[in-house]
Amino acid sequence: MNCLTTHLGRFGVYPAVVAVILLLFGCVTPDYWYGDQPLYTPEGGDMGDSPVEEQVSLPTRQPTPLPTAEDGKIAIFIEDAVFLCLQQNPELLVERYNPMIALSFEQIERGRYDPEIFGELQYLDETATEVSRSTRERFSVEGRDVNATAGVRQQLPTGTEIEATFGGKRSISNRTPEQQDFRVGLTLTQSLLKGFGPATNLADIRLAELDSRASYYQLRGFIETLVSEVEIGYWQYVFAEQGIAIFERSLEVARKQLAEVENRIEVGVIPKNAAAAARTEVARRQQALIEARSIHAERRLRLMRLLNVTGSDRFSLQLITRSSPQTATAPLDDLSEHVQLAMKLRADLGEAGLQQKKQELEVVRTRNGLLPKLDFFIDIGKTGYAESFRGAVSDLENDSYDLLTGLRFSSYLDNRSARGRHQAATVSRAQAAAAVDNLKSLIAYDVLAAANEVNRAEKKIEASRVTRMLQEQTLEAEQERFAVGNVTSLLVAQAQRDLLVSQLDEVEAKVDYRIALVRFFLAEGSLLERRGIKLDSALAGPGTPVL
């Protein structure tokens, strides 16, 4: 493109006014170039402010002391277990760094539009020999030049680049008088096709913001999973704890039965081989008790790991549960409401929605990349000349100005790279939309399946209670028949074994019901709200989930 250079007549103060307006306009940060467009949340909910603050500190684990131990035992409620886990779990501390990392990338993208100041200082010392064209006489030339330039430049989300400069030059030579010049200039470059408009140029910032909010959903999902693991681990520990008590009572009953059989053998009421079944039952109960204690120890260690219990006594420290699994809850009536609630609260659906929004922004950006590059530029300047710096500045009031303006064009002939990126972005957008629809279907299935498990576990509680009562009556009847000699000790042992199984089934049914509720609330996405846990805005920093 040809450029037009001209000297204009007197402009008065207009160039200065234009320069001031453009400089003030250029210092505006891109934070307010677009309206408060609500980001995607499930079912169109508005997330509001960013879940992470712009100024954050490194997250720290706040040590929370365990309840006072008595005789190496600590009594703990399920609420205590959840609180201690949120305060001290090291995996949660690691995850809390992710929102901070995502936020830093957001600041990096915003920094592209920060004003930049620059300066340059040059010094040239030259000694040369030249030949006069007219006289062919050789003469020596000595000169020194000092050139200083400073200014400010900024890119704007509109596709505009503004640069304002001022600088002076001092030239000293043994062949010419000293000369100084001072120039003030303003350069503006505006993209007209590719790179034009905030919608395209703010895409990277918007993508970084979406990543920041996605990190919030990821952190929320991790905390939900962590809380569910703690509660499930607690109830499994309760089952192991009560299972040991049941096995110990069962072993005591088996030993009493063996003692009674041996007494009757001594008096000759029953033959000696009648004690074999009773001894076998005692051995079985001892074996089962060993297995139960092993399971109890494993679940204790797992729960203590989730609570991050440290110290030299952590291997010998015993946890005593104080929460009972016999807590009644409201029945699950209208499942459609629970499904709708899951569509609003599920963290994975929120994150998937943000991914869909990111793909939409990619389509906008790659569509603009299909256009050719066409830039309009203009450079306005004014220069003063004199033998002194002050005189050069004063000479700016003269009538001469310089203006350089024109168009700059470039384009790839086939532009296959841009077309390929746009095609990939378009397909990825359709894929993200399909993924959201599929996830909604899976969430509805998860809620309904979890609700079915809750109903099954709730009904099993009453059924197992009735079974246990009937087994107690059966054992009592077998013991009475054994006392009068109508049955052998083998039938009594079988009745004891059946009672043991029914007792374990009853406790397991109660624990399974509590675990099923936890998993239902997790599928619904309401576990944190139902436990009174709120993720505050400073979660990425030193703050912690609020209970």
TrEMBL record:
- InterPro entries according to UniProt: OMP_efflux (IPR003423), TolC-like (IPR051906)
Mind telling me what this protein is named?
Outer membrane protein TolC
Which keywords describe this protein according to UniProt? Cell outer membrane, Membrane, Transmembrane, Transmembrane beta strand, Transmembrane helix, Transport
* Annotated localization: Cell outer membrane
- Membrane-spanning parts: 12-34
Q: Which GO terms describe its molecular function?
A: efflux transmembrane transporter activity; porin activity
What PANTHER family does its record include? OUTER MEMBRANE PROTEIN TOLC, TO APRF-PUTATIVE OUTER MEMBRANE EFFLUX PROTEIN OR SECRETED ALKALINE PHOSPHATASE-RELATED
What domain of life is recorded for the organism?
Answer: Bacteria
Cellular component per GO, a single term: efflux pump complex
Question: Does the keyword Amino-acid biosynthesis feature in the UniProt annotation?
Answer: no
What's this protein's family per the entry? Belongs to the outer membrane factor (OMF) (TC 1.B.17) family.
Statement: the UniProt record of this protein carries the keyword Membrane: yes
Where in this protein does the record put region Disordered? 43-65
Q: Which organism is it from?
A: Desulforhopalus singaporensis
Recite the lineage of the species. Bacteria, Pseudomonadati, Thermodesulfobacteriota, Desulfobulbia, Desulfobulbales
Mainly resides where?
Answer: membrane
